[in-house]
Amino acid sequence: MRNLLYPFILSATLPIFAQQPISLKWTTGEETGDGSRLNHLTIINNSADTIRAPWQLYYGSQSPVLVSRSPLAEAVQICGTHHAIRSLSDEAAIAPGDSLALSLSGYYFHNLSFFPENPYLIAVDGRGGSTWPIRIDLQYREADHREMAGRIDNYPDGPRTYERNARFTPTTSLSPYHIIPEMKSVSAVAAEGPCVISGAITVKAPEALSKEKRILEEMLRRQGVKVDGEGATAVTLEIDGSIKDGDESYRMSIRPGGIVISAPAPAGVFLGGSSLLAILAGQTFPLTLEAADIEDRPDFGYRGLHFDVARNFTGKEDIKKIIDLMTLYKMNVLHFHLVDDEGWRLAIDGIDELTETGSRRTYAADAASSLLPAYGSGIDGGKSGNGFYSRDEFKDILRYAADRNIRVIPEIELPGHARAAIMAMNRRHERYKDSDPAKAEEYLLADFNDRSEYTSAQDYHDCVINIALPSAFNFVRDVMADIIRMYAEAGAPLEVIHVGGDEVAAGAWEGSPVALKYMKEKGMESTQELRDEFLMKIQQWLEPQGIAVAGWQDIVTRNGGKEVNTSLPVEKMISYSWNTQPYGDMDQMTYSMVNAGCPTVLCNVNNLYMDLAYSANVMDGGLHWGGYVDEFATFATNPYDIYASAVNPDDPQSWNPEAYSGKVCLDPAMAKNILGVQGQMWAETYRDFDMVTERMMPKLLGVAERGWNARPRWNSFGEFMSACSDYASRTALNEFDRAAMMGINYHVAPPGLKMEGALLLANSPYPNATIRYTLDNTEPDENSPLWTGPVRIGAETEAVKARSFINGRASVTTELFLPQSPAPQK
User: Fold this and answer.
1) Are strands 809-810 and 799-806 parallel, antiparallel or unpaired?
2) How far apart, in whole angstroms, are the C-alpha atoms of residue 568 and residue 566?
C-alpha cells in the first residue's frame, strides 16, 4: 500500500534540471498547541542549476490547505485537491547542492489517503526565462505510530485488535454448500449416493442456453476446473416453466449421475451456475458432494455496485474483471459513475470537447486543453487521471455485462459535480465563438456574468451547471440521446438513467443574471424551484422512452435533505439513499422516502460505502468522513431495520434496539419500495486496479449477501458475532483462494497482539491466516518469525509489529507498544 507515494525520476526530456531530480523531504512534526501540527519540508536541489524564484511547488492532498510559517513561501489551495507552495522572495532561490527548509501548520495527516503525493515544481529557467515542470522525488514520513495511537480515538493497536478478534470463533469445518451468498434451501437426499467430481466437468445445454453454457465453461476454467476432460461430470442446464419464484430463481439437483440446474428463465440458470462455481471454489478434486436438492432465489431484484471512473479512471478490461466479480456473487446492476468534477469518461458523438478536455488532467490546464491535476494524478495525469471510453469500448462493456445478466445504469452527474463538463463546454465556446457563435453557445453550461459565491463539498467554486440557460437542457438532452443510441446499438437494456443531483452547493445561481431573470419570469421564489423544474424536464423527456430518472436522495428531498420533496412525483423517481448517519436525524430519511412511495435503493454510507477505510490504522487507505467500513459493516446491513445496521464487532453496545425508539419506522405496506442494496466504490483514494480490488474485497461479499438474503438472522450481539465468525471463515477459506486464482487483490484483516505477563499472544478472525512478527521495529514480511503460540518477549523490546498473511497477501501492520525500557545504570 505504500506505493501510493510514487517515487519519480526526472525525465531526460525536460529542458532544465535534466541531470538529477529535485527531492522533497516531508515530515509530520509536533503539535502547535492550537489543534494543528507542524509539517517540516526540505526542498533539496541536487541539480547543477539554481532553482530561481518565483517558483511554485504543487502537490496533491485531500487534506485542507496548510498555513506557511515562513516569510519565504505561502501555501494555497489551487483547485479541489490540488495545492501549491509558492515562493514569496528572491531569497527562496535554491542553489545547486543547497536546500530550503519550510514549516507549515495544519491538518493532521492520519491516513495514507491524505498524505501528500505526486509533487512537481514550476521554476524559472535562467537560460530562456521560460518555466518548466519538474517532477520531484517525494520522501514522506508520517507521524510516529505510537503518537497516532494516542491521538486517534479507538486506534486499532495490538490490544484493541486482539480484543476484537477474540470475539470471533473461526471454523475450518465448512460444507461445500456453505457459500456466499448463502443459498435459501439445501436439502440432503439421504437415499441417493454422492456425486463424485473427478476434476472435470462437461456442460450440456439446449441452444437457447448456449450463452449461459459458454460463460459457465469460461468461469470454470478460470477457477482451475477442467472442462470436457476425461471422466467429466455432466452439468445439465435447462428451462423449467414450473418454477414460479421469478426469473432469477433456480433449482439444482445433485445426484450420482450428475448435476442439473433448472430455472424459469436464462437469468435463473445463469445464477444457478454462479452457485455451482461457488460450491467448487477452493475445493480439491476428486470432490465428493452429498446428494442434495437446492432451491434458491434472491430477496431483492436490485443487487448493485456503484463504480466511479471519473475521479480516477479504470480501463475497459479491468471493468470487465469487476463485472466478472459481480457475476460470481450474483450481483446484477452496475451503476456506472462516468462523469464528475474531475473527469468526463465517455465519448459523446458531436461533442468532442467533453473527452478532449474533460478526460485529461495536466499542469497546463490554463491552456483549456485539460483539467487541473486532482486525486494524485500529478504533472501529466498518468493512467488514473487520464482516459475515457470510446463509443465502441462502451458498447463492448454493455454487451459484456448484458451477457452476464448485469444491467448497466449510466450516471451523468448534474447540476452539481459538473466541473469537467463546464470546462469542456467553455473550451467549445472559445473554439467557435468567432467562427460559429450559434455552435459556441449550443451547449454552454456557464453564465459568464455569474457572480454567485459557493463552495462545493470538494472545494470547487465553479462546478454547478447554470440550468437557467436553454443550452443546459440542450446539452443534457443530446448527451442522453447519444447514450440511448449506444445502448440500442449494443443490444443492451436501458431502463434507468441516473442524474446524480447531490451536493449542489448553497449559493449556486444566486448571483447569475440569467438565472435571476429566468426565475422572475417563471414566478419562482427559490433556487429549489429552479432545480425541481430542470429535473422534471429531464423526467418528462425520458419517460415516454421507457426510461426512469434516478438520483442520489438529494433529488427527492428539500430543506437541507431533511424532508421529502412532495412537490415532485417521487413515486416516479428512484432515490439512492446514502445519508444514513444519525446526526441531524438524517438516518430517518431512508424510511421517510420509502414510506412516501419513492422507489429506493439502499446505499447506506456507514455500511455500503466501500471506499471508506477499513479502520483507523494509518496504512488502511480510504476516506473516513462516514466512519470506517470493513467486510463486517457491509454484512451487517439490515434493509428492513436500517438503524440496527450500526452493529459492529468492535462494540458489544452497538446492538441496542432501545436507542432507535422514536425514529421513523418502515411502513410494512411500503416495504415493496425498497428495490435493493448497492455498494459504493468512489474513486478518490485509489490509483490503480490493485488498490481498487483491495478496497472492494471482501466488502463486496457482504453487499452480495445482503442483496440476496435481505433479513439477517440475529437478535443479539452474540448471535451477530456468531454469524460474522461463520462469514469470516467462508471468506478466508473459499473466497480468498478464488480471488487469488483470478489475480484479484484483497484486504486481509490484521492480527491482534497483547502481552500476558512476559508472553506475546496473537490472534486473527480467520482460521487459515499465518501471523509473522518482528521485535526490532522493522516491517514483518513472509520471512519474519512465524507466530505459532505464546512467545517470551525480553524487557528491552519497545514494540512488536505483526501482519497476517493469506495466499501471500499481507494485512496492514498491527503494533503493540511496550513501555520504554529503563535507562541502563551507570
Assistant:
1) antiparallel
2) 5
Q: What confidence score (pLDDT) does residue 663 get? A: 94
3 state DSSP class of 227: strand
Under a CB-based contact definition with an 8 Å cutoff, are residues 343 and 313 in contact? yes
Q: How far is CA 651 from the centre of its chain?
A: 25
User: What distance in Å separates the CA atoms of residue 598 and residue 614, rounded to the nearest whole number?
Assistant: 32
CB distance 522 to 509 below 8 Å: no
CA 229 to CA 693: how far, in whole Å? 32
Predicted confidence at residue 365, as pLDDT, reads 55
Burial code (b: 16+ CB inside 10 Å, e: under 16) for 742-755 equals bebbbbbbbbbbbb
Give which of 388, 394, 573 is closest to 482, Cα–Cα. 394
- Residues of the chain falling short of pLDDT 50: 1-19, 820-826
Does the pTM surpass 0.90? The reply is: yes
pLDDT, residue 151, reads: 77
CA nearest neighbour of 55 among 21, 115, 100, 18: 100
pLDDT recorded at residue 130:
59
| DSSP code, position 310 | S
Quote the pLDDT of residue 482.
98
CA gap 271, 253 in Å, rounded? 14
Q: Indicate the angle between helix axes 391-403 and 470-490, nearest 10 degrees.
A: 50
List beta partners, residue 86: 56, 74
Q: Which of 481, 335, 357 is nearest to 419 (CA)?
A: 357
Collect all residues with Cβ–Cβ distance below 8 Å to 740 and sequence separation of at least 6: 746, 807, 808, 809
Provide the total of helices (H) and of strands (E) in the chain, helices listed first: 20, 38
Residue 125: the pLDDT is: 65
Residue 11: the pLDDT is 33
CA distance 6 to 3: 6
- Distance from C-alpha of 163 to C-alpha of 523, rounded to nearest angstrom: 62
In the 8-state DSSP scheme, what is residue 190? T
Q: Which residues contact 730 (CB under 8 A, 6 or more apart)?
A: 174, 178, 179, 180
Q: How many whole angstroms separate alpha carbon 310 and alpha carbon 464?
A: 16
Looking at every residue in the chain, the average pLDDT score rounds to 93
